Amino acid sequence: MADEHGEQTGSAGGTFLSMSGSAEVVVQAGNVNGGVHFGVPEKAPRSTPRQLPADTASFTGRGSDIARLRELAEDRSRRSRGTVAVSVIDGMAGIGKTALAVHAGHQLAEHFPDGQLFVDLHGYTDGLAPREPADALAIILRSYGVLPQQLPADLDARAAFYRDRLAGTRTLVVLDNAATEAQVRPLLPADPRCLVLVTSRRRLKALDDADTTTVELLPTPEAVRLFRRVAGGDHGNDHGHDRGGADGGADGGLIDEIVALCGRLPLALRIAAALIRHRPAWSLARLVEKLRDGGAGIAGFSDTGRDLAAVFDLSYHALTEEQRVFFRFLGLIPGPETDPYATAALLDVDWADAERLLEDLVDHNLLLEPSAGRYRMHDLLRRHARALAERDAPWQRDTAVERLLNYYRQTAARAGARIALFRGQPPIEPPPASAPDFTQPNDARAWLRAERANLEACLEHVSQRGLDNHIIALTGAIASLLRRDGPWPAAISLHIRAMAAAVRLGDRPGQAAALTDLARVRSMTGDYPGATRDHQDALRLFRELGDDRGQAHVLRELGHIRWMTGDYPGATRDLYEVLHRYRGLGERAGQADVLLDLGEVRRMTGDYEDAARHHGEAFELFRELGDDRGQAHALTLLGEVRTLRGDHAAAARDLEQALRIHQDLDSRFFEANTLTYLGDVRAATGDYPGALRDVGKAVEVFRDLGVRINEAWALNHYAALFLATDEPRRALELYRDALRLSREVTQPDDEGLALEGIGMCLLRPEIGREANARDAAAHLNQASEIFHRLGMRPEIERVDAVLGEIDPS
User: Fold this and answer.
1) Is residue 154 located within the same domain as residue 253?
2) C-alpha closest to that of 385 among 334, 331, 325, 304
3) What is the sign of the dihedral through the CA atoms of 91, 93, 95 and 97?
4) From CA 202, how far away is CA 182, in angstroms rounded?
5) Phi/psi at 27 (nearest 5 deg)?
């Protein structure tokens, strides 16, 4: 027997409700196994449910998410395939999933004139078990007028009647707070003109045909606007702007801080705003003070009707015991992110189990995966996890954190050794049981950069606890990264702290290493006196320890300082001695670095042929070692020498190849160096716009990194481009900046170039002063004196030629 839609509604041996007509007709068809079987009841008279909860006037943002849902609702191609549109809206607790679903439902209601259904499935409701699908169907069917006695007892029969009831309709179904896919599947209609919105804290990956929207944190401007709207009163007036601080006066800065403390989480923002709205005696400053107090987890995020800790607890209690332990321990990690290797160390499990647990928490939206293999916990969830971990035994917490610290220390030491400027002895400790394999220097460099925030957080953690061994080891492990990437002022502070730790422990090798690392960074900032002092102290310690390799490294650094401060004869002597020592030690990487320095000394004294030979030898050594960074550096310096020799095509080829390598390595400092040299080539070939672009970017990078010595150098190049393009006033301004910087960092060659540039600008008639010729001659004479003292022959000839043309009167 078939109903009006052609579906079978009953069979022999059972009792079923006929679907013919609008009145209910009970047909007795027999007795099955001694009992009475009730089939699908007849449809009751149609009604049009309008069950969406009220929308909120303070709903803020989510424009792209709503647009996506609208596009899904209007997707005609899905209808032609005969499949119902299902969108799963997932996200962490308090992120605003239900608010989005309800707001979108009201926005889309016109597309679904046959009704809007809303069912809370209680997947995460305090004190209530998740709602059974059969019970949810009963609620829906009763809203259509089906009497309780008419409901089939069987889940499949109820689901069939539900699908039949929605057949031929355009109905919106909102299934809120779902726990599992099994809870949702019986509640999906079959008609492709319907739309189903499902919200869940879990990722319902087994709903194969569903579209997924993961709700993200609010952007800061929208978070500020939400707080203002809920807080109301004076705080609700943002003058139509999206900025908190700019338009809010003194309160604006406090609101920005409240938004940051709330982690841009909508529920936390609403609670915080409600506290202000309903407590007239409270000021924003009082609220900030309350939210800053992390000692009690997230106890500050509670009002009379909402408690963020209770909301998070519902997600926590939905986990298995193994997952709960992991969640609590994640609150203990010092850094902002983790990966399967670090997690394996934290939990003392293997890599596969660590990855499984991480993915489990991602599925529960308790972790974010901002990039493949990298996992991050929201700040408020972390505070809650840390508060929960206080219930664990102290030894369990301490042991887990110690395992994590050992992992980072050992792995960073292995990575640092792969990219060290001077190759020392390999780390003595064996690698952790689960650790990345650094087969290439690039792998080590990439790991160190990815983990930098975690490593620095671990350093802060051990420093606060006075764990000197960890301070020394971790700082030494990241020394090469700090030297390459900066910022150097922060690196200096870290190395000073490591040196102090070594002194406290009486660790003389650690003290010598820390002094060497500190001196290298001081040299990068132009503090040559400080660098020389630290290197000499380190050299004394290495001699007392009988460390030949350490002595050679320090002597090379001292020779480098002689070159940078213009003592070219002394630099040549010292660097050749170091080259001989490195050859005796078999230190090929050190030989390559010294050859680069020797090439630079030769270039500065005008011996371009010898400079090119040294740079070429260094390039070949780096290539044999597989050191991409070294090859790129050698190509950069070789390109500059070729520019000076007039071979612009070869220079451009070398520099562009070097630039690609530095960009692949994300080495901003060396990329900026290469851009400056490339600007010279572009200018020499007439491409001044390209030259200005490249050198201008280099100046910005050096300034951002705090490398004042290179900033002064690049400013001279930048000023020369403006002078060549008939902008002498801008050039004069830049040359004066370069002069000030080069004097502050004791860089005489750049000081001379800046003085020469100022003199050339003053000779231009656009500057417009009668005394310009005398001032120009004074600056040029000062430049000439510096160039003569340094032995910079090309510069001497150039400046003296200009001085010879100036009228001495």
Assistant:
1) no
2) 331
3) positive
4) 13
5) -115, 120
Burial of 560 (0-12, 13-18, 19+ CB in 10 A): buried
Residues 146 and 259 in one domain: no
Distance CA 589, CA 215 (A): 50
Average pLDDT over residues 161-186: 91
CB 334 within 8 A of CB 461: yes
Same domain? 228 vs 206 = no
Closest CA to 332 of 285, 372, 385: 385
DSSP string spanning 396-460? HHHHHHHHHHHHHHHHHHHHHHHH-SS--PPPSSPPPSS-----SHHHHHHHHHHTHHHHHHHHH
Do 228 and 335 fall within a single domain? no
Cβ atoms of 541 and 511 closer than 8 Å: yes
Residues 6 or more apart whose Cβ sits within 8 Å of residue 353? 344, 347
User: In angstroms, rounded to a whole number, what is the distance separating the alpha carbons of residues 93 and 59?
Assistant: 17
The predicted-structure confidence for 763-809, as pLDDT tens digits, reads as follows 888 886 655 788 889 999 999 998 888 777 788 889 989 888 876 55
Mean per-residue pLDDT, 57-74: 85
CA–CA distances in Å: residue 678 to residues 8, 478, 607, 697, 718: 79, 30, 21, 12, 12
Cβ count near 559 (within 10 Å): 25
Domain of 129, CATH number, reads 3.40.50.300
State how far the Cα of 426 lies from the Cα of 424, in Å rounded to an integer.
6
Nearest-angstrom CA–CA distance, 472 and 496? 10
* Residue 751 pLDDT exceeds 80: yes
* Residues 89 and 31 placed together within one structural domain of the fold: no
Yes or no: say if 299 and 309 are a contact pair by the CB < 8 Å rule: yes
Domain boundary among the residues 188, 214, 240 is at 214
Query: Are the C-beta atoms of 167 and 5 separated by less than 8 Å?
Result: yes
Long-range contacts of 31-34 (CB under 8 A, 24+ apart): none
Q: Give dist(CA 610, CA 590) in Å, integer.
A: 19
Q: Is 487 helix (H, G, I), strand (E, B) or coil?
A: coil
Task: Report whether 710 contacts 488 (CB < 8 A).
Answer: no
280 and 345 fall within a common domain: no
Cα separation, 392 vs 321, whole angstroms: 13
**pLDDT single digits (tens) 387-433:** 888 888 999 999 999 999 999 988 988 888 777 655 444 455 677 77
- The predicted model scores a pTM of 0.63
Q: Which domain, by its residues, includes 8?
A: 1-42
Residue reference for tokens 């620095």: 456
Read off the CATH number of the domain in which 517 is found: 1.25.40
User: Tokens 């609702």 — which residue?
Assistant: 73
| Helices 668-684, 648-664: inter-axial angle, 10-degree rounding | 160
Strands 337-338 and 374-376: antiparallel
Question: Quick check: helix, strand or coil at residue 375?
Answer: strand
Nearest to 556 by CA among 743, 710, 418, 423: 423
- Cα 331 to the center of its chain, rounded Å: 19
Kindly state whether residue 681 falls inside one of the protein's structural domains: no
Token duo for residue 623: 């290539």
Does residue 708 fall inside a structural domain? no
Residue type, 460: E
Rounded mean pLDDT, 204-216:
86
Angstrom distance (rounded) from CA 695 to CA 456:
32
In a domain, 235, yes or no: yes
Do 231 and 209 fall into the same domain?
Answer: no
Task: Provide the CB-side half-sphere exposure for 692 (13 A, CA).
Answer: 14
Is residue 92 located within the same domain as residue 210? yes
